[in-house]
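Fold sample X.
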Amino acid sequence: MKKLTLILTVLMIGYIFASAGTYEHRDGGVSIWLPDDWKVTMDGDILEAEAPTQDAFAQLLMLDVESLQEAIDVYAEELDDTFKNFRVTSQGENLEWNGLRVYYVEGEGRIEGVDFDVEVSLIQSNRGIVMMLTFNTEEAGKRNRRLYKQIAQSIRAI
């Protein structure tokens, strides 16, 4: 009996730690894992996360569009509100993450005089189109390349 209790306790603790950094974007119908040391806030339908170094960021927000194709056609306009001189630097890719259709593209832009590399993922969930932005300085991008991959691969439908 003690052995069973110990096993169940270990499993429960493992589950708690495994899900400790998972956040739900209910409006978007997705969940996302973010590092425990990142500051995460939810403001309306926008989930924002900031690295402790304050040079790497992630955002999830709903787009007011009817389809993934419409989102592809207008996402750059959405980014103009955030980034000055946003421009696309790669050809877009159609991907699939955990059963979700995704359109992925890279770009760059400037906020308050600081240049940022920007990754845009347009995610089609059963509730609409969610735009995920990850953006960082060039140095932070080099440092966080694997981390961003982990974040992207963590996205799941809820």
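Fold sample Y, listed below.
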Amino acid sequence: MPYLQNRHSEHISPLKLYDYLSTGRPIVATRIAGLEGFEDVVAVVETRAAFHAAVEAAVGAGRLPGRQARLQRAQDHHWSVRAREAAAVIDAALCGV
């Protein structure tokens, strides 16, 4: 996920991150605000050279270290989970009226 670091990317919420996590494969991304809290399952880098190095390391990693952690994070953000969370917020707001 090689995002440019600019004004636009300050407000990106990369939904494709969840698709990538669900593959279990290593993910490399440049630092954007939408990736905060995902550093444990995404190699977040600052520079073009670091991005290339991280991709090469991910390709050469072999047995996909961290695969289970990435799959679990994808499950944690599955649409069914998000729908339940949204329903609970709506229910709480309606019941509080």
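Sample Y note: Residues 8-95 form one domain.
Also: The chain has one domain: 8-95.
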